[in-house]
Design brief:
The relative contact order is 0.16. The chain is 20% helix and 29% strand. The longest helix is centred in the C-terminal third of the chain and has 16 residues. It has 396 residues and is an alpha+beta fold. The two termini are 27 Å apart.
């Protein structure tokens, strides 16, 4: 489990102790902090780090607020990481900031902070009118080599960087001439908000948005957020390639879901509901997990740990994948057995039948062609819309 270094009196008091009897209202952290955006970190890249780089991450909010704080991650770092300057701003036309919204973040009152290997830091709160359903810019400047960089590889969003110095507080964005398809270092943004808490979605590439249009915020959790209209934050804890039970060494697929659960779900602000949509990679990746009891056992652990924190848990059925490169009847039988458990065991607090929402009535083992991105595993934008529409908002 990574370590979280917390700065500032307000932040220290924002640590909630939750019990199995907690209500959804009690789950909100003191001070009204609610997660508005999150991205689960994957394995490190760039062995030497990014010395003298400014990286402008473009992220999209789910709820608005009056004050913000930012999480930065060195989870997969091998040594200390120095942030010399970090800013947050409301985006105008990326990479430019909306005039008057640029804020320098501090950590225990200091502009610079050193993050140990395997740790995260949480900034001091900063006053900023954060709109819901809008882009923010979180810019980091790293002055020195750091070792492997923690990142989220498939952002489905263009961000920007420059290797030429500290431009973290530049409003115009003119210095940010190079682009990246990943989010680096930043793993979460919380706001002080009147929202009723947040929903976390734990998943793999289907939750991460593979197959959706880049820069459109058409991942199914984004489209769910659109339906909620700021009532709840929606936090995406999906990682492409992620599995429930096994890691994939040397990949960007992150730690297995059980290993990352405390960090990527339980540590987030104001969580009241968890949606689990994970397991298809355990089935379809090599080595194949064909024993549904192993996947079910993982679900039971996630349910138990979440409920111990007073978080309700909704289970999402695994979506059709006939036509995908490794599909066969044995793997399909495993998927069907897992889905039967999700639908009929009553161990989840509710079920979201993503399988029924996406399957082709003429061939229920396949995805409806109108929803298929083309690889028969990942939906397209229309498919992600159908998934978001399948969620009963009253159960959140």
């Amino acid at each position: 489990m990574r370590r979280l270094l917390v700065f500032g009196i307000t932040v220290v008091t924002a640590v909630a102790t939750l019990t199995a009897s907690s209500t959804a209202t009690e789950q909100r952290t003191p001070g009204g902090w609610v997660g508005t955006w999150a991205a689960s970190p994957g394995a490190g890249v760039s062995p030497g780090g990014y010395p003298n780089y400014s990286i402008r991450n473009v992220i999209h909010t789910s709820v608005g607020g009056t004050t913000a704080r930012v999480r930065l991650s060195n989870t997969f770092g091998a040594g200390p990481l120095t942030f010399g300057h970090v800013t947050i701003a409301v985006a105008a036309t990326s990479p430019a900031a909306k005039p008057g919204t640029m804020r320098t973040l501090t950590f225990g009152g200091q502009q610079s902070v050193v993050v140990p290997a395997a740790a995260e830091v949480l900034s001091d709160p900063v006053a900023l009118a954060v709109p819901r359903d809008a882009d923010l810019l979180v810019t980091t400047y790293t002055p020195t080599p750091s070792g492997p960089v923690t990142f989220h590889s498939s952002a489905r969003q263009t961000s920007y960087f420059t290797p030429t110095g500290d431009f973290a507080d530049q409003e115009s964005g003119a210095a940010f001439t190079e682009q990246t398809a990943a989010w680096h270092y930043v793993s979460g943004v919380d706001v002080q908000s009147p929202a009723d808490g947040s929903v976390v979605v734990l998943g793999d590439s289907i939750t991460d948005g593979s197959g959706s249009a880049t820069g459109a915020n058409h991942r199914w959790p984004d489209l769910l957020s659109d339906r909620l209209r700021g009532r709840l934050g929606v936090l995406n804890a999906g990682i492409g390639g992620n599995r429930l039970l096994l890691d994939v060494p040397g990949s960007s697929f992150g730690r297995n879901a059980l290993a990352r659960f405390a960090d990527d779900v339980l540590s987030l602000g104001g969580v009241r509901t968890l949606i689990v949509l994970e397991g298809i990679n355990d089935i379809q990746q090599t080595p194949h997990q064909t024993d549904p009891a192993q996947i079910i056992s993982a679900y039971r652990q996630l349910i138990a740990q979440a409920k111990a924190r007073g978080i309700r848990v909704l289970g999402g059925t695994l979506t059709p994948f006939k036509g995908w490169q490794v599909w066969d009847e044995t793997l399909e039988a495993t998927r069907q057995a897992v889905n039967t458990f999700i639908r009929t065991s009553h161990e989840f607090d509710g079920v979201i039948d993503f399988d029924a929402a996406l399957r082709d009535p003429a061939d229920p083992l396949t995805m409806l062609p109108a929803y298929d991105s083309g690889d028969h595993l990942h939906p397209n934008d229309a498919g992600y819309r159908a998934m978001a529409d399948a969620v009963d908002l009253s159960r959140l």
